[in-house]
Hints:
Mean pLDDT: 93
CATH topology of the largest domain: Dihydrodipicolinate Reductase, domain 2
EC number: 1.1.1.49
Number of helices: 15
Largest sheet: 8 strands, mixed
Low-confidence stretches: none
Pathway: Carbohydrate degradation; pentose phosphate pathway; D-ribulose 5-phosphate from D-glucose 6-phosphate (oxidative stage): step 1/3
Domain Glucose-6-phosphate dehydrogenase C-terminal: 192-476
Catalytic activity: D-glucose 6-phosphate + NADP(+) = 6-phospho-D-glucono-1,5-lactone + NADPH + H(+)
Distance between the termini: 42 Å
Helix content: 25-40%
Number of domains: 2
CATH superfamily of the largest domain: Dihydrodipicolinate Reductase, domain 2
Bound molecules: nicotinamide-adenine-dinucleotide
Order of helices and strands: EHEHHEHEHEHEHHEHHHHEEEEEEEHHH
Amino acid sequence: MAKEKSAIFIIFGGSGDLAHRKLYPALYRLYKAGVLKDHFAVIGTARRPWSDDYFRETVVTSLENLDDDKQKMEEFAKHFFYQSHNVNDSKHYIALKELAAKLDDQFSAGHNRVYYMAIAPRFFGTVAEHINSEGLKTKNGFNRLVIEKPFGRDLASASELNNDLSKAFPEEEIYRIDHYLGKKMIQEIPNIRLKNPKFDKALSGKYVSNIQVTLGESLGVEDRGGYYETSGVLRDMVQNHIMQIIGSIAMDKPDEMTAESIHKVKTDLFSSLKVLDPEEVNRAFVRGQYDTDRLGKQTAYRDEENVDDNSNIETYAAGKIEFDDERWANVPFYVRSGKRMPDKSSRIDIVFNDQASKLGINPNTTVSLLIEPENGHSILVNGIDYQDSNQDLIKFPEDKTYFDDAREAYESLIIDILSGDRIHFTLWDELQSTWKYIDVIREQWDLETPKFPNYLSGTMGPEAADTLLERDGNSWVWDD
Ligand code: NAD
């Protein structure tokens, strides 16, 4: 049983989608696990004038899919309080401060505060500034600021946001969420490498032909068309999730399994990203937007709600990323992410080259680490399952049920925040390098009008994504 934690959570945007779909269920699971027990309270804030009782009802409703232990849910909801709040109104922060202090006494929460930004990104800076200027931070406990993505929309806006935040919170109190870093398989990669020295040794340009990262979704934009129009898959998935996954698999071995050591090797890796010249963009990256499906039944992106009829926003991107790094010289990292692909599938495929036989790895071996919908790994030789005869290459997880009771990403990240463990959060230095890389692509794409839509819903994306690999004599491991 995990150790009990104490804190007052202040959730800015407590009536919103993220809070209801992700945060309250995660907090409830932690309550059931005893991580949150007697010494915590949650203040939800939003503009609407809600009562505590009404807020608690909405919290309980958000848990209804989890189980039917109504009594437990009601007990949990007693820890929730509502404070109507407008981000620009200083008086409201004073009211929040007083309520937090009162609840801290009532629940003996150790003067610990978690300030969670479940609110539109344009408010992040203002809220952080007011938390500081209105004296919400406590002296004798921790004060941790949790920031949701997106962290800026390019390097300039991310730097501006970071400047605003750093006036109010030092870097070590800022927890930038990338929920992929909360997923069990991603968290396990450093351990997999540590426990499988042969596999770890093979992770280098000497033995690897290419590495592929796919974050495929079968759904379209659903009801988030408005948000998507301001983002596109390059900003929404590649700059953050895909880069962080590459970081986990390609970083050098850290000296220790501490946040400091891990972030150091990750930062070094990202600073060696080979930033493209504008004229290289269209050779290295492909973009796409979904049309209807073969039967004309699914809604094309341009016909989705809150989407411009002539939108040039990409719902698919594939690219070849390279590093100026001794370990990874000349190894292409092929990445792709798209909506309306045939299945949901998040995975890393590591394709070994002929030299890998020097380590006793069969020619044409591919190791796939499966992140979603299922956790696990597979070893294929010439496309055929070779798990048993490659036992010494990668033995993990030994226990097949290892991932079964894995904590959901937000649950695991909230424990880290409460424990002050920053391993699974993104640091500003990492973001600077990844934005710098992405900005060139975005800027080039914005200069040209793409021929959209260019792939049917339910397919693997535009053909050019296959050509991208074929030009190098390679092909995607995950294919329909
Ligand atoms: P939402 O629109 O559902 O909720 C926004 C919340 O902010 C509401 O509670 C609203 O009342 C409050 N709010 C709006 N204006 C306000 C003001 N002036 N003063 C005080 N409160 C105000 O948004 P969401 O989908 O929950 O997203 C919240 C944040 O989380 C965003 O930064 C988003 O990018 C990020 N995020 C959301 C998801 C998701 O699945 N919803 C996933 C990843 C990141």
